[in-house]
Amino acid sequence: MSTQNSQPDVPIRRVDRILAFTALGIAAASVICFFAIIIGTALGMDQKAFGHGAWPVIAFIPYWGLPLAFAMIITLLTMSFIRKGRASRP
C-alpha cells in the first residue's frame, strides 16, 4: 500500500543541478582519460612517451577527477537528504 503525499515535490535548486552535471562531466572525463592511458600502454608507449605532450594532463585527470566527482556526489546526496527532510517537517 502506498501513501499519497499531498505536498508538492521539493524543487531542484540550481546548485544541485550544477553539482550533478559537474560531477558527471568530471567522472566521464576521468573514465575516458583512464581508457586512453590503457590504450596507449597497449599500443606500446613507454614511460618516456607518457611524460611529454598532453599525457601528463591526461594522467592527472583520473588521478584527481574520480575522487573529486565522488566527493561531489556525496555532497549532492547530503544536500538532497537535508532539503527533503526539512520539506517534510510540518
Walk me through what this model shows:
- By secondary structure, this protein is mainly alpha-helical.
- 70% of the residues lie in helices and 0% in strands.
- The protein has two helices and no strands.
- The chain has helices at 14-42, 55-88.
- The longest helix has 34 residues, at 55-88.
- The chain is rod-shaped.
What is the count of helical runs? Answer: 2
Distance between the termini: 23 Å
Structural class: mainly alpha
Unreliable stretches (pLDDT < 50, length at least 5) are: none
Mean pLDDT, to the nearest integer, reads 87
Largest sheet: none
Q: In total, how many domains does the architecture comprise?
A: 1
Q: Gyration radius, to the nearest Å? A: 20 Å
Topology:
Elements: H1 14-42, H2 55-88
Helix pairs in contact: 1-2
Keywords: Membrane, Transmembrane, Transmembrane helix
Organism: Microbacterium galbinum
Protein name: Multidrug ABC transporter ATPase
